[in-house]
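Morning!

This is the sequence you dropped in the shared folder:
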Amino acid sequence: MKYATILALLTSLSLSAGFSDIDVTQLKALQAKGVPVIDIRTPQEWQQTGIIKGAHQMMFFDIQGNAHAQTWLEDLSKIVKDKKTPFILYCAHANRTKAVGNWLVDKLGYTHVYELKGGIEYGWKDLGEKTVKAR
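The structure's back. Tokens below.
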């Protein structure tokens, strides 16, 4: 499914009960408790801006906007053991994570999905937080 299509569907949805925005302080606290952080951007974006230290690099949409949902879910299952396990998503500006997070909660039944409000650009780097080199 194309990124634009998912975003169009998202405009008709409100944030799900199991899907929440968090800020930098909340992300750091959850990460310190062992909650996984997942960067869903593209490899080019990882190289350009770096990643949040400890984040898993798991591209969801390719640069053409095509979703790779099945492969991504297989990779997610290696990190998130069940649908009740909390985890944090982020992308560049939080647009893709809203689409993916709502899909995970509304369609697949995940119950504790968080996203970094504003993404890595506005919710992390613009607040002076550092990134590390992508692998």
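Headline: The radius of gyration is 14 Å.

More detail when I'm at my desk.
O.
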